[in-house]
Structure of SSS family solute:Na+ symporter/sodium/proline symporter:
Amino acid sequence: MNPLYAAVIGAIVLALLTVSLTRAGKVKTKADYLLAGRSLPAFVLVFTLLSSWIGSGSLLGGAENAYKNGLVALWQAAGGWAGLLLIYFIAPRARKFAQFTIPDLLEARYNQTARVLGVIAILFAYTAIASYQLIGGGDILNLIFPTVISPDLGKYIIAAFVIVFTAIAGMASVAYMDVVIGMLATITMLVALPVLMHSVGGWSSFHHALPASHFQPIGNYGLLPAMELFLPTCLLMLGNQAMYQKFFSAKSERDARRAVVGWIVGTVILETVIVLLAMLGHVFALRNHQTPFPREIISFTALHDLPSILGALLMGAVFAKILSTANNFLFSPATNLVNDIFARYIAPNASNKRILIVSRLMVALLGIWALYQALHTGSVLQKTLYAYTIYAAALTPVILAAFYSRRANSAGAVSAIAAGTVITVFWDTDLVHRHLPPIIAQRDAIFPALLAALLCLIVVSALTRPPRPEQVARFLP
């Protein structure tokens, strides 16, 4: 055990709990818990958006891909960048709608069935995303305390902590912790990159140490597999409920749009740095004849190849980012169960106190489900793409149609959500693979699921009655 690394992790845990407990006293109503009282300024929004987006999907899944394949891993990040450019125009409309969740939007624009199916799709996608954050946190605890904490025990510990600090104060704790986490991660990664590059002997030595394909845009991947990285990430970004909740929490439409600019700049920089750090870690592993788990490469490099203080801070930053993302993607589906099921159908007249109690209970139950998934997951990269694809195919098309199509209707939306969810969930099962040619069955689910959802949305909407004018008026100018 390295006492310095343990001390940094302990300090981060203490700081996060302090922020949660401090904000907890200000949570009195449903809006306080779910949307931080709709009071977040652009500065806070930038860091909470950045922290919720860059978690284990980038730090473990993206790093795993970069370790194995090099710069081709940036196709996954580039999907997010493309989505962000489009979000710049969506953010003010999202803030103008100003409800609590994406299913709120689905019911207002389509119908109650769309709301319920939206909740189901979000539960599948977001608990999967939360699950591999627990894997990442468990890996870090195992690296720091190798003889005391196994990876599985680490998952249990991280799950318990995330459940506790997510449940305490809701969005208020999420957003204000993300400011600290985002600044810590940004600074340490930007400092670590040139230090490692210098240690490896500069760009020339770095380039010669890895296969030439690692520095080519497509590498050994091919365009179609690269697009299977790009599309799910882009479409998840465009329809991401955690993102829309942050926009709903903004002080104003202007704050929402300004936050997107900062988010774009920060994401492009950090995602690129993460890929380069993973590739540099691969070089050090080759030189030192080490065989780390690819998904652990950034934390492994921080532990073995950086000066102690910088390495401890980088490890702490990765740990904090993972906790932040787990927090966001656990809190968001809990919001759905409370706002879209409990308060909508079970107890519509429930008091604020009762809603807060149920909200915290839902966080705990979903945290346990995410832990179960974490204990039965192999590749973080594959789990990442599965979670992204469910959301990208089932929800993003109908969310964008809500803001930009006058013809999309409830029948089209319901059929699209159902088709995207079912195809993604069952795509990798033996039932599907036995009845499809191998050349199709071996592909990622994003293309068949997205195509089916789009066809349902367009064709079913065209063949059925148009939406009522009042359904469209709140979303289109």
